[in-house]
């Protein structure tokens, strides 16, 4: 097993020090994901920028959570599922949505279910989504922008999920209570 370093603002590569200091100021700690990503200043910067862009996308907090957690659960990310459970709570997302995503059970409404279905289709078909699936997504009340905003959210999660798989990033203390394992 390769050991990856959890950096802080004192021992990180020079290109990551300022970004880690910003993370610490924003969160009161350096999230483990950021600490690992600091090995590659470009990855850390890209991740944080894509996060900002996705937060400013066409989706509301419930929809952001559906995309994030759909990807996290599909990819079996031991770090991101608990982290986004806590993030969803802080964003005021109903626990029924979070639990349905974590447990892969039906969501509380058809619109959110259509978003999860489209996100899964995008992941599983590697972007080769058929016209009928795109139309079903649009018919659920989403827009053409939403199609591409799902890709934006997926891009963010690929960076974090794959980093966490490789580095076996420890779950941050505030999110340990939301520990999760993918059902067999």
Taking pLDDT < 50 over at least 5 consecutive residues as the criterion, the unreliable ranges are none
Query: What is the beta-strand fraction?
Result: under 5%
State the secondary-structure class.
mainly alpha
- Counting DSSP H or I runs of 4 or more residues, the number of helices is 9
CATH architectural name of the domain at 60-161 and 171-178: Up-down Bundle
Which class of the domain at 60-161 and 171-178 in CATH terms? Mainly Alpha
The topology string of helices and strands comes to HHHHHHHHH
Radius of gyration: 17 Å
CATH topology of the domain at 60-161 and 171-178: AhpD-like
Anisotropy-based shape:
globular
Mean pLDDT: 97
What composes the largest sheet? Answer: none
Residue share in helices?
55-70%
- Terminus-to-terminus distance: 24 Å
CATH superfamily of the domain at 60-161 and 171-178: AhpD-like
Q: Assembly state here?
A: single chain
Q: In words, what does this structure look like?
A:
The chain is built from nine helices and no strands. With about 180 residues, it is mainly α. The longest helix is centred in the C-terminal third of the chain and has 24 residues. The chain has a domain of about 110 residues: AhpD-like, CATH 1.20.1290. Helix content is about 65%, strand content about 0%. Helix 4 packs antiparallel against helix 5. The mean pLDDT is about 95.
């Amino acid at each position: 097993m390769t050991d990856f370093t959890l950096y802080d603002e004192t021992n990180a590569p020079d290109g990551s020090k300022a970004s880690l200091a910003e993370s610490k100021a924003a969160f009161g700690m350096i999230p483990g994901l950021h600490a690992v990503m600091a090995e590659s200043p470009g990855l850390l910067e890209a991740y944080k920028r894509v996060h900002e862009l996705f937060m400013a996308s066409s989706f509301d907090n419930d929809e952001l959570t559906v995309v994030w957690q759909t990807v996290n659960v599909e990819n079996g990310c031991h770090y991101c599922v608990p982290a986004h459970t806590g993030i969803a709570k802080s964003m005021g997302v109903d626990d029924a949505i979070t639990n349905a995503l974590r447990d892969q059970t039906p969501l509380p409404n058809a619109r959110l279910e259509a978003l999860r279905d489209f996100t899964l289709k995008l992941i599983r078909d590697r972007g080769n989504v058929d016209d009928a699936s795109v139309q079903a997504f649009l018919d659920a009340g989403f827009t053409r922008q939403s199609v591409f905003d799902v890709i934006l959210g997926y891009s963010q999660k690929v960076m974090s999920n794959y980093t966490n798989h490789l580095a076996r990033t420890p779950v941050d203390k505030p999110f340990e209570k939301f520990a999760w394992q993918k059902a067999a």
